[in-house]
């Protein structure tokens, strides 16, 4: 299973939220590049970089941080947060993102997202499926939609999407374990999907359970920053 560490950015710093609540913010490091280099030195290959300022502002804000990490590491970066326009997408790719995660725009402007899939190719686009109680949430998780997760996935897999990052919002940043049964259900309905589990990982055992459930990839954030899982454990899981 591919282990993907996450770096969430506010004001150029590495932070984490709980359930997407900007009032429940904790800063872990002033320099995200130092954190990214630690992940690289541990043998990890991927990075999930989230522009939380961008998600709140509805346009990319922290592209300089993306550029800095991309130019000083060999990590394959997927970038998300605030990608709302052609210009945002071009900025992300030109700043060094290998892939871009799109969530809210995929809900509110599906035709725009369809065009991006066609123009840039499905391998460079990750569909962000942020879920609360079975329905998709948008705009930094501040708004719930009436769109069911299953319908959302059916639509975009029919358009060629193969990569989906699914976050159970109720578990994100809570260190209470991932939504393993939700992911099992998704993989049962979409067995060829390159599904990335996100939210709730509290320890290495959670990652082992996700691996046993057949998850191709999993994101680790707060569990690492809070010392619940070590770099050595992440390296062993990723390379074992």
Question: Would you mind describing this structure in some detail?
Answer:
The protein is an alpha/beta fold. Helices cover 39% and strands 30% of the residues. It has eleven helices and twelve strands. It has an eight-stranded parallel β-barrel with strand order 1-4-5-6-7-10-11-12, surrounded by eight helices. Strand 11, helix 9 and strand 12 form a beta-alpha-beta unit. Helix 1 runs parallel beside helix 3. The longest helix is centred in the middle third of the chain and has 11 residues. The radius of gyration is 16 Å and the shape is globular. The model has no long low-confidence stretch (mean pLDDT 93).
Question: Runs with pLDDT <50, length 5+?
Answer: none
Main beta sheet:
8 strands, parallel, barrel
Strand and helix order: EEEHEHHEHEHHEEEHEHEHEHH
- How many individual helices? 11
Beta-strand content estimate: 25-35%
Question: What is the arithmetic mean of pLDDT?
Answer: 93
Give the proportion of residues in helices.
25-40%
| Shape label | globular
Strand order of the largest sheet: 1-4-5-6-7-10-11-12
For the CA atoms, what is the radius of gyration? 16 Å
Report the strand count: 12
Q: Provide the structure class.
A: alpha/beta
Distance between the termini: 9 Å
């Amino acid at each position: 299973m591919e282990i993907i560490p996450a770096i969430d950015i506010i004001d150029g710093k590495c932070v984490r939220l709980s359930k997407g609540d900007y009032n429940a913010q904790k800063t872990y490091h002033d320099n995200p590049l130092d954190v990214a280099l630690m992940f690289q030195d541990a043998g990890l290959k991927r990075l999930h970089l989230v522009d939380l300022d961008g998600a709140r502002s509805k346009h990319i804000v922290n592209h300089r941080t993306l550029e800095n990490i991309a130019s000083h590491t060999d990590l394959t970066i997927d970038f998300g947060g605030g990608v709302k326009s052609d210009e945002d997408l071009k900025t992300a790719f030109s700043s060094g993102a290998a892939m871009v995660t799109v969530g809210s725009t995929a809900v509110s402007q599906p035709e725009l997202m369809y065009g991006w899939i066609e123009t840039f190719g499905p391998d460079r686009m990750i569909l962000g499926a942020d879920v609360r109680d079975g329905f998709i949430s948008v705009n930094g998780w501040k708004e719930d939609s009436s769109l069911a997760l299953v319908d959302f996935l059916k639509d975009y897999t029919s358009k060629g999407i193969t990569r989906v990052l699914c976050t159970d919002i109720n578990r994100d940043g809570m260190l209470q374990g991932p939504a393993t049964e939700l992911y099992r259900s998704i993989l049962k309905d979409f067995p060829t999907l390159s599904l990335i589990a996100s939210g709730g990982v509290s320890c290495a055992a959670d990652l082992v359970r996700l691996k046993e459930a057949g998850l191709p990839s999993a994101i680790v954030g707060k569990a690492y920053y809070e010392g619940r899982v070590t770099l050595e454990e992440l390296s062993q899981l990723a390379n074992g």
